[in-house]
Structure formats: C-alpha cells, structure tokens
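Structure request: Cupin-like domain-containing protein, Duganella alba.
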Amino acid sequence: MPASPEPIREIAGLGPADLTDDILTATQPLVLRGLAGSWPMVRAALENDRAGLDYLRRHYQDATVGAMLGGADAGGRFFYNDSVDGFNFQPVHAKLTGVLEEIENKLALDPAPTIYVGSTTIDTCLPGFREYNDLDLGGRDALASIWIGNRTRIAAHYDLPDNVAVVAAGRRRFTLFPPDQLQNLYVGPIDFTPAGQAISMVDFHRPDFEKFPKFAEALHHAQSAELGPGDAIFIPSMWWHHIEALSPFNVLVNYWWRQSPDYMDTPTNALMAAFLTMRDLPPAQRKAWQEIFRHYIFEADTETAAHIPAHARGVLSPLTADGARALRGHLLKKLNR
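Returned structure:
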C-alpha cells in the first residue's frame, strides 16, 4: 500500500508584514495559515466567486495575457499528448476580461473545460492590485505573479527561486517532495516541456505503479497540505511541487526570489552544457569530472585556491558582477567557435 504524504509544518497568526528571514531562508516547506487573510481580494473571494472575479476586473487595464485551454476530458491536468510530441491543451493570448468571463460562465460545470492563466506579472495586468494585496518580504526583489483558473492540475516540477505562494481565491492542494526524490518522480523531457520546467510523468490522480514503481518510494518522502483563501505556503528552492486547484474559481499570487546575485546565471545552463560536454564520455572520464566538480564547485571552500596568489586565481576567485560578465563572454566565444 503506497504511503500517504505527511502534513507540511504550519504556523498560524502571522500577517503580511510578519515574514522573518528564518521563514524566507528555510530549507523545509512551511504553511502560513491566514497570512493574507486581510487582503481585499481574499475577502471578496470568501464572499463568493463572482465577487472575487469582479475584484480582479476592477484592477484590469486592457492587458493581454497568455492562457491555456484544455478539454473537460483532461480532468484539469495540463500535460503531454499521448505520443509526447505535443500537449493536451491549446495556448492562446486573450484579454484577461475575456478569460474571467469564460471562467464565470463555466462555474456550474463539473467537469468543465479547463482554463488557466499562468505566471502573469501582476503589475502588468492588474496595476494597483498590489497596493492593497501584498506581502513584506524584507526588501527582497521578488517577482510577483498571478495565476488564475478553474479546476486545474499542474504536474510536479521544481523552480530555482524560493517561493511564497498565496491562495487568494478557491482551494489548492500542494504536494511537495525534497530535491533528492528526482530519481523517483520519473521526470519527462528537459528541453520540451508544457510550461518551461521539466515535469513528473506520473498522474497523481491515478499513479501507475507498474510503469512507475519508484514513485511509491517518493510518496514516503512527500509532504502535503490543502490551503484556502488567505493561506500561504513557503516552497524552498528546488523542491518538487504538484499543485491542484480544487474549486471552480482559483487565484494564486506568488513571489519568486533568489538567494544569489542577479549576475549569476541559472544552473540549468551548466546542466545543458554538461549534456553537450560530459554526459556521453566514457565512464572513467565521467568519474574524473565528477571529482573535479566536487573539488571546485560542490565542496569548494576557502582552501580550494588558497595555494594560488590572490591576483592569479582568475575564476577561482569569488564571483563578482564584472567577473561574471567576463566569464560569460569567454563562454560565448567558446560555444560559438
């Protein structure tokens, strides 16, 4: 019998200005019950779905958004098609007011065709929204995005930034896995994805344990929570998360930020370069490169280059904005040879 996820640790009683560095730099997920309960958006959504929809309309100023449309037979799951050479949804660009009207017209349908506006910058599509509905992240330069839809399922994936996600309308179930569960989640293509991030191929509603037997082990390490309007969750960098919207109208507001300088590139670039340069080397050579990366990257410390004069350390010196620029230019020349 597969294990059931453990509950995510919770804190209650905090408000939008009460987020501490201990919370925002944690390495374990945390549910923040009622964190945004004072938001006008949350209060409108608690009144009823149409009041929540109307609140969004009041802040809208003619922006076009990207949306995904799926058939009712998909069960809300945005995924690949059967042959994994396309997807089971149609991407469209539309006025947000049109998307909201489509959601409103289908509130009573179950199942309903799936409608989803994903990761749209709030200040672009809903100017003024954050004046009344926002969190104090202690000066962090976070990207604030909004996600709007009906009953949807987003496959398990990871994000590089740390993330606080606020349920502003509806209910959502979050199921999280620590980074070391990668091998048990049966992740699909890295460079051909539904929305930018590689995803688990397991259908969490109907997991096929014959096809994906190691997913049973992943469930032993899973954590889960169901959140309602005003609740929030902190998702640490690189944690896998599956998100299911449970209501006919759902709004999620999330804040992404990195604990590293802006001049640092995404490590995904290093992974893609490793496919090009290392993955198909003979085993003994891969083992040698594993030791090089351990020494210079994963276990690097002040002793790594201490035997080299400071002026001669080059890329072994601490990275700066100027150093990052120079290194990026060097790599581009190498790759474009």
